[in-house]
Amino acid sequence: MKQRLLYWLLSTVLIIVSNAAIADNGPQTYFQWTELPPVPDTTGLAGSFAGVSNGALVVAGGSNFPGGKAPWSGGTKTWYDNIYVLEQPGGQWKEAGRLPHPLAYGVSLTWKDALICLGGNDAKGYYASAFLMRYINGSIHTEELPDMPRPNANASGVLIGDVVYIAGGVSDAAGQSEKSFWSLDLSQAADKRTWKELSTWPGPSRMLSVAGTMNGAFYLFSGVQVEGAGNQRQYLKDAYRYTPGSGWTRLADMPHATAAAPGPAFIAGQSHLLVFGGDDGRYFARNMELQDRHPGFTSSVIGYNIITDSWASFGNLPAWPPVTTPAVLWQGKLILPGGEARPAVRTPRVLAATPTQPSGAFRLIDWMVVGLYFLLVVGISVVVSRKMESTTNDFFLGGGKIPWWAAGLSIFGSKLSALTFIAIPAKAYATDWVYFLNNMMIVAVAPIIVYFYLPYFRKMKLTSVYQYLEIRFSPNVKLLGSLTFVVFQVSRLGIVIYLPALVLSAVTGINILICILAITVITTAYSVSGGIEAVIWTEVMQVAVLLGGALLSLVFIAKSVDGGMGQVVTEAVQHDKFRLAILRWDITEPVLWVVFVGGFLTQLVTYSSDQVVVQRYLTTATEKEARRSIYTNALLVIPASLIFFAVGTALWVYFRHHPALLNPHGNTDDVFPWYISQQLPAGLSGLVIAGLFAATMSTISSSMNSIATVITTDFYQRFKPGTSDRQRFIFARRATMLLGVLGCIIALYLVSLHNTSIWDQYLKVIGLFGGCLAGMFLAGIFFPRINAGGVITGFIVSAVALYFVQAAGKVNFFLYPAIAILICVIVGYVSSGFFRESVKRTAVPASEKVE
Q: What is the pLDDT of residue 716?
C-alpha cells in the first residue's frame, strides 16, 4: 500500500510539471470586444435610454441628424420615441412600443425587472418626468414615478440598492450646468415616494459627468462645466465620493476628462470603477475643418481604485468609441448601444465587452522550484513511512516522540492556512492593522491553556480531546462534541481545497481541476502513509517555505518602491495604514475592546477544543515539552503576523505608485497572489507559490488526520469495542483516504457551482458551533456544578441564540465566541439543577503538573 501511495505522489508531481503553463509578462487584455446586431435606425441614435427588463435589452428614444448631415453642414437635430427590444444576443431587434413623446439625454438605470427613465429633453424643451418601463409579453408597460424637483438632462446617476441618485445636468435651453444632487427611494410605497435634495459636492457645477457606485458609496467623475456668457465650457478632471451619512470626499484627479462617457461606471472586481472613453475636450469641434482633423473621442479605458485612490489606464475601446450612450450590464456583458462615434456623428453599432481574466505569468524556473518543493514532501513521507509502526498510537500521536519545537511549528502551520496566507495581506492592503491584535491574543491565551487545560489532557492520556467530555460529563456529551468537530472540519475541508486552488489556477494558468487533484492526491498520500508524524514533519518544512517566501516578498516589494522600506513606512503612516485600534464603543465594528475580547476567546476556542491543535501537543513525550510547543507557536505568531501585515501594507504603497499593474477584475483577496505571479522575479515567484501550496497542504493534512482520529477513537472504537488496534489502524488509514476523496469531491462541486456564496453561508452557520464547543470545555474545567444534561442544554441554547444574533447583524463577528461561551456556561449552570444526575469531577486539579 505504501508503495502505491508513493507512486501516486511521484506521478502527481510529474502531472503538475508537465501541465505547467509557461507564460510571459506581455500586455494584458481585460475585455473581449464583440458586436451585437445594430440598432434598427440606420443613422444611429445618441442619448437613448437603455437597460434590461425581464431579461431583454431595451433601447428607447434618442436623437440624431438624419442622413448623418452634421449641423455645420445644414443638418437638423431630430428626436425619437421608438422603443426597440433585443431578447437574445443573436436575435433581431423589434419595435415594442413608443415613449410618451420624443426624448433623449436623460438618465436610464436598470432596477429589478424595470428600466428607470429620468428627465431628458427634445426640440420643445427639458423635462422633469420620471417613469418605469417593463417589457412584458412582447410589449412595453410604463409606470409613473414622482417628477424630479425640476427639469433635467445630461445628468448622471446610479442605483444604490433601491435608492436612485442623480447628479448635475442642465435644466433649460440656456445650457448652464447644474450643481444639484437628488435621491429617490424606490423601496417605499408608490404614494410615499418623494425626491430629496441632498448636499452637493465641493467642486464646480457640471453636466455630462459619469456616476458610479461601489460598497454603498456614490462616485462622481469628470463632466463639463458650462457657465458665463457664450456658455463657455471647462472640461473637468476632478472626482468625488459621497457616502450616505458621511458626506462628500475629494478623490484623486483623473488623468484626463471623460465627459459624456457611457455610464454608470463599470464595476470591475471588488475595487475598481472603469470609465470607457469620453470627451476629454481636445476633440470638441464645431466646424468641418476641425472635425476632419480630430475624427473621434478618446478611446482609453481608465479605472479608479477605491483602495489606493489612484487612476490607471487599462487598454482601449475599439476604433469608434461611443459617447452619450448608457452603459448596460446584460447577460454578463457590458453593452454600449449606439451613441456618438464622432462629434455630431451617430452610430447604430452596438458594442459588447466580456470581462476576461488575464493569464498567469509562471515560468519554467518557477515550476522547477515548485517541483522541488513537492519532491521534498515526497522525501519526508518516504523517510517517515519507513520507520512508522502500524499502530494507532503512531498514526495518531507519532508514538509520543515528536520534539517540542517540531510540534510547536506544526501547531503554527496547521492554523496558518492558505486562506490566511492570502487574507492577512489582503486585509492590511485594503484597510489597516486593526486585526493584528486579534492574532496577538494567542500570547495571552497560551498560559491559560498550559496551566488549566494541558494537565487534564495529558494526565488522562487522551487521543481525541473529546474523550475529556466523556470522562467529565457523559458519552453523549462526547459524541455531541465529536460530531460537531467532524461536521465542521469536513465542511471546511472542501473550502480550504477549493479557494486556494482557485487562486493558484488564476496565477499559474493551470486548470483548476488539476490544481485540486494535485493538492488532494499528494496531501492524502503522505497523510495516509506516514500518519501524524509525516504531517508534522512536512508542516515543519512547509512553515519554513511559507515564512521564507513571505519575507522575501516583503523585501522585494519594498525594493520596488522608490525610497525603499522608508518610503513604504512614511507613506503608510501618512494615510493611517498602521492604525492598530478603533477607539469607539460600537459593538458592530472591530473596535479595540471588541477585538481584545473576541480575539482572546477566539484563540481560546482554537487551543482548548480544536482536535487539530490539541492533538499536536499530545504528540510530545512529556507535559514540559508540550508546554514548550504551545509557547513556541505563540511566540512564532508575532513575527509571522508582522511579516504578513507588512506585506499587505507594502502592497498598498506599491500599487498606489503602479496602479496599472493591478488586475482590475481581481478580488481584494487576490492582491498578493497576483503580485507574486506578475511582479516577482523568476524563481522567487515559484518559492512563494510553493509557500501557498505549503499552507494549503498543511491545513488539509492536519484536518484529515484529526478527523480520522476523532472518527476512529470516538465513533468506530465505541460502536465496535471488540476491534483490535491493528483493525483500528487500518480503519484510520482508510478513513483518511476517504476524507481526501470527499474533500476533493466537495471542491470539484464548488467549481461546478461557479459561486461559493451558498457554501460561505453554510460554513458560517457551522462555524457558530466552535464557541459553543469551547463553552463545554470551559464549563467542565471551571464549573464543577454543571452536569451532562446542563451542558447539552447550554450547547443547544447557545447555538440557537448565536444563530439569531448573527442573522440580526447587530454584533461584530469577533464577539460570537464570547456570546456562545457565555450563554453555554450560564444556561448550563442554571439548567443543571433540573437534571437528576451526579456530577463527575475531573481526576486532576488544575494546579497539578505531571511530567
A: 87
Residues 368 and 291 in one domain: no
For CA atoms 210, 212, 218, 219, give the dihedral sign: negative
Q: Which three cell numbers stand for residue 772?
A: 459553543
Overall pTM > 0.70: yes
> What range defines the domain where residue 543 resides?
2-23+360-834
Compute CA distances 151 → 36, 102, 166, 182, 635, whole Å. Answer: 33, 15, 12, 12, 66
Which segments of the chain have a pLDDT < 50?
2-3, 5-7, 13-26, 284-295, 756-763, 765-766, 842-851
Long-range contacts of 822-826 (CB under 8 A, 24+ apart): 822/775, 822/798, 823/775, 823/794, 823/797, 823/798, 824/771, 824/772, 824/775, 824/776, 824/778, 824/779, 824/791, 824/794, 824/795, 824/797, 824/798, 825/775, 825/778, 825/779, 825/783, 825/786, 825/794, 826/794
Residue 336's pLDDT is 95
Domain CATH for 736: 1.20.1730.10
Buried b (16+ CB within 10 A) or exposed e, 28-39: bebbeeeebeeb
Give the pLDDT score at 753: 66
Q: What is the reported pLDDT for 74?
A: 60
Helices (H) and strands (E) in the chain, counts: 23, 30
Are residues 35 and 76 located together in one domain of the fold?
yes
In a domain, residue 261? The reply is yes
Final residue of a domain: which of 329, 355, 381? 355
Domain boundary among the residues 355, 371, 405 is at 355
Which distant-in-sequence residues (6+ apart) come within 8 Å of 1 by Cβ?
529, 733
Q: Which of 469, 478, 431, 407 is nearest to 630 (CA)?
A: 407
> What is residue 496's predicted lDDT score, i.e. its pLDDT?
78
Domain shared by 379 and 321, yes or no: no
Identify the pLDDT of residue 217.
96
CA neighbor of 486 nearest in space, from 613, 608, 612, 615: 612
Q: Are residues 337 and 426 in the same domain?
A: no
Of the candidates 553, 497, 498, 522, the one whose C-alpha atom is nearest the C-alpha of residue 691 is: 553
pLDDT of residue 375: 83
- The CATH number of residue 165's host domain is 2.120.10.80
- Give the residue carrying C-alpha cell 492556512: 417
Taking the C-alpha atoms of residue 449 and residue 251, their distance in angstroms, rounded to an integer, is 49
Whether the CB-CB separation of 779 and 794 falls below 8 Å is answered with yes
CA distance 564 to 571: 11
Pair (320, 391) in one structural domain? no
Please report the pLDDT score of residue 548 as a whole number. 87
Q: Is the dihedral of CA 59, 60, 62, 66 positive or negative?
A: positive
The predicted-structure confidence for 533-586, as pLDDT tens digits, reads as follows 878 888 888 888 888 888 999 999 999 999 889 999 999 999 999 998 888 887
3-state secondary structure of 465: coil
CA atoms in the 13 A half-sphere facing the CB of 306? 27
User: 59-111 pLDDT, tens per residue?
Assistant: 999 999 887 666 666 678 899 999 999 999 989 999 999 999 999 999 999 99
Of 247, 279, 273, 300, nearest in space to 158 by CA: 273
| Residues 351, 380 share a domain | no
Would you say residue 849 lies in a domain? Answer: no
Give CA–CA dist 731/532, Å, rounded. Answer: 15
Q: Looking at the structure, do residues 314 and 226 belong to the same domain, yes or no?
A: yes
Pair (348, 417) in one structural domain: no
Distance CA 667, CA 661 (A): 14
Which among 256, 356, 358 is positioned nearest to 300, based on CA atoms? Answer: 256
| Cα gap 692→679, rounded to integer Å | 16
3-state SS, one letter per residue, for 165-229: EEECCECCCCCCEECCEEEEECCCCHHHCCCEECCCCCCCCEECCEEEEECCEEEEECCEEEECC
For the chain, how many structural domains are there in total? 2
- At 798 the three-state DSSP class reads helix
**What's the pLDDT score for residue 518?**
83
